[in-house]
Design a protein that fits this description.
mainly alpha, 19 helices, globular
């Protein structure tokens, strides 16, 4: 195993070990202060009503098939039974999930890069994205789904690095991913990365790869089918009903390509500048000697973006954000090459993202995003020139 970086090396990378924790807490406070008026979303009532049904406190109908994924409602339902108001029960779950998601993403990026700087920058970028502030802190279950998806990425990493990958571990992983579908569909991201990792990894023969695919898929399908049966029996709802509903009531866009591009941009906002630059530099400098987990990440990052419009008709940043861990890594990798000015860049990016989001949602100013992109772009250029002139840019 690669050696862990020393604290002095972490400090030279432009970030001290305790900074990410303080930064994540400050970002969370910004979310609370700026977006508490958005805690109740159009979907919130459907989730709270379903949790009340699960808690045995309501006979009202389950709107939008929320009980087809009951595991996302379990914690709020329990807290509600203990006397906590239902809205606060959901907020507690979201805030706890924020902590879990940030910790799990740090761990996964650290596994991929063997760099605490990449992991720290990546998790700070993730936390300061607009969907985390608006949907990840609201009376919804989005943050829970994102957190569990990233946890599964860590589980998949450890599975791939077992000394001996047994059939029992493989079946267990597939079954676990099947169970997590009944939390949120965003947990599928682990399956996407794992698919590419098995395909490109050279330590396994093609026969072994076929066995892995078969065991993972079959155990996943068996668990999901069992879950369909249970939810249909107890709640008269299933994920199949939810999928059918979403495909019969699809939104109409004047131009779905433009809608998709705009919502993609809104997913991580100004961080796209760093992501695209980092992606291009990584391809240029590292592609010929790329490690297989990173090659799988690269393929996952591109494939999910290309395939999403073919699979799902809702062009929403809230949904697309499940793929943010695939994209933000490349921006974090690029940031880790910078000198001590990188902290300023993170602060400017956070203020640009959250400031633009606040103006859009609270002041209805729709043209603020181009200004945020321009401000951050200029800041990137200036700080990059400063870092290069001081010979602070690092190589990996």
């Amino acid at each position: 195993m690669p050696q862990v970086e020393s604290l002095s090396k972490q400090a030279k990378s432009g970030i001290a070990p305790h900074y990410p924790i303080a930064g994540l807490f400050i970002i969370w406070l910004f979310h609370i202060l700026l977006f508490n008026n958005l805690w109740i979303q159009p979907d919130s009532e459907t989730y709270t009503q379903a949790a009340r049904i699960l808690a045995g406190d309501s006979d009202a109908p389950d709107r939008l098939f929320r009980l087809s994924k009951p595991l996302a409602l379990f914690i709020p339902a329990v807290l509600y039974r203990l006397g906590i108001p239902i809205e606060w029960a959901f907020l507690a779950q979201q805030w706890g999930s924020y902590i879990v998601a940030c910790w799990a993403l740090y761990r996964w990026y650290r596994h991929l890069s063997n760099s605490s700087a990449v992991a720290s920058f990546g998790v700070l970028m993730y936390a300061s994205c607009q969907p985390v502030g608006v949907y990840g802190q609201a009376v919804l279950v989005d943050m829970l789904g994102w957190a569990v998806g990233i946890l599964l990425l860590n589980v998949a990493w450890h599975w791939a690095n077992l000394v001996r990958t047994t059939w029992l571990a493989t079946v267990g992983l597939g079954a676990t991913m099947g169970v997590c579908i009944f939390i949120k569909e965003s947990t599928l991201i682990a399956g996407v990365w794992l698919f590419w990792l098995i395909l490109v990894e050279q330590k396994w023969t093609w026969r072994q790869k076929l066995q892995f695919y078969t065991l993972l898929a079959s155990s996943f399908v068996v668990v999901v089918a069992a879950g369909f049966g249970l939810t249909s029996f107890y709640f008269e709802k299933s994920i199949i009903d939810w999928i059918a509903f979403n495909h019969t009531d699809t939104p109409q866009y004047a131009n779905w390509v433009i809608a998709f591009m705009l919502q993609t941009a809104r997913t991580i906002d100004v961080y796209w500048i760093l992501v695209l630059i980092g992606f291009l530099f990584f391809i240029k400098e590292k592609f010929n000697k790329i490690e297989k987990p990173l090659l799988a990440l690269l393929l996952a990052a591109v494939s999910v973006w290309l395939c999403y419009p073919l699979v799902w008709k809702y062009m929403m940043d809230r949904i697309l954000f499940m793929f943010a861990p695939f994209w933000l890594y490349w921006g974090a990798w690029w940031l880790a090459r910078w000198g001590r000015n990188v902290g300023v860049l993170i602060i400017v990016a956070t203020l640009s993202n959250l400031g633009a989001t606040y103006l859009i949602y609270n002041n209805k100013i729709s043209n603020v995003l181009p200004m945020a992109y321009a401000l951050f772009g200029v800041c990137c250029v200036v700080l990059f020139i400063c870092a290069k002139s001081k010979n602070e840019l690092r190589k990996f």
